[in-house]
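Entry 12.
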Amino acid sequence: METAQIRNFCIIAHIDHGKSTLADRLLELTDAVEPRRMREQVLDSMALERERGITIKAHAIRLDYEGADGVDYELNLIDTPGHVDFTYEVSRSLAACEGAVLVVDASQGVEAQTLSNLLLALEAELTVIPVINKIDLAAAEPERRRTEVAELIGCEPGDVPLISAKDGTGVRELLEEIVKRIPSPSGDPDAPLRALIFDSQHDKYQGAVPLIRVVDGSVGPPMEIAFGSNGARYEVREVGFLRLGAVPTPRLTAGEVGYLMAQIKSIADTRVGDTVLEANRRAAELLEGYREAKPMVFAGLYPSDSDQYERLRGALEKLKLNDGAVHYEPETSQALGFGFRCGFLGLLHMEIARERLEREFDLDLVSTVPTVEYRVQRRDGSQVLVENPSQMPPAGQVESIAEPFVRVRILCPTDYIGGVQRLCHERRGEFDHMHFIDGQRVELVYELPLAEIVLDFYERLKSLTRGHGSLDYDLIGYRTSELVRLDIKLNGDPVDALGMIVHKDKAYFLGRALVEKLKELIPRQQFAVALQAGVGSRIIARETIRPVRKDVTAKCYGGDVTRKRKLLEKQKAGKKRMKRVGAVDVPREAFLAILQLGGE
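Predicted 3D structure (tokens):
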């Protein structure tokens, strides 16, 4: 098809503002899906996506649309993830488009992710079409939201369409707006091939299948291709575009969106943001914006039954085939046995990966406290990266510790400003600025340590604002902080899986709360168990779990007291011997307790 008749666009929105529902209506109106195959959230293929109402993986689908002017158009809809953990994937999906439809809920208005995605779209120089969705709701305030969005973008309120993706009101008119306002792609069909990978999938027969937007040139079998980030070469076996399934086509030319099959074994070779090139006629410049997907949050995953270790290894290998952003390596814990240290893009990414492992591979997993990556400067001048508290060098060798900081953007009603500011200051936040969106809503910007928000910051924010607060963050770099390693010891032996890196001012309160909680959760043994929280060689909190005792003097009804003393001394010696060889079993609930206490 001629480039002038192609429109590449995406839909961006805050979570639960109706992005997937709008995609459903667009598919229906353009007959891209047979009525018998139509269902809600048709582009969300994973059960988790459908249950949680969020998009985890990007999807692309081609729509054929006859405009009001009688011209046939090819519309390529690229559905993007909607959570802060997947910001890089969203930015690459935006780079594959010329326009974006910004969806705003008529009852909730502009949220933190709305602003974040809008800024990404404007940075990518896309044409943004704002729409107000859910105008059929009883709580909808379409005119107020129209004015709010118009002020944000700098357009007239009348230029913001009102739609209801649920019942289809205004969606056909939106299609006309897409055709009129979004420019056709630019690119030279005769230039050397340059194509952007905005996502990739794994097929058990075809290997890794990258989803691409052709920027210059064309691609088709039997062309030999290469990637910008590595030197491997592959022969193209098939190209095509996506409906609900793959539709082969002879070639993909400049401006088109589709898939490419070339028997690529590893999904690690088809990195999101990379450039596909013609191996024998390489373009002089790669496409901009590529960077490695870098894990931000780390946690240990252990099978609750040690016999499941090999199954967990196989499950992680299969998960990585579909999710190249997951990193893992084997590790051993004295308390939990054999497991894996895993890196994730964020807390939601970790939660989704763990849930997929448990559901799809029938595993029962225990996870350690989520941590971030610290940069530790030793006194000898060397620097080490620490993502596991057990890797922290002894306090005497440490010169300084730097931790990652993020710029957090919080949107909430003005009634909750005080509570949100108090929460941010509790979490060592530094105030940046405040901006009133209108008389009832405010945007607060803080700089916070990433470690302070990975545990329960979002839940606390939602609780404080009665569900009306929203959150978005960007990494801004590393800063030196006064951090220490908090160790939990059972009878003098540190439990590595319970250790954590915390700020010096919080160590005592967290250590005290933790040993008190563990005293409740660890069952009583035949011998006394000393629970201690320590920083370096200094013990800062202690509790003792009393032993379970048998009344050995019950059979003594009389006689000399020395007989009773003899029995008690014998019992005491037995307890001492048992304590020397006995092991304390730490229940799973104890590890979950840290997740609840870590953010307090």
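Annotation: Residues 44-56 have pLDDT under 50 and may be disordered. The chain is about 25% helix and 35% strand.
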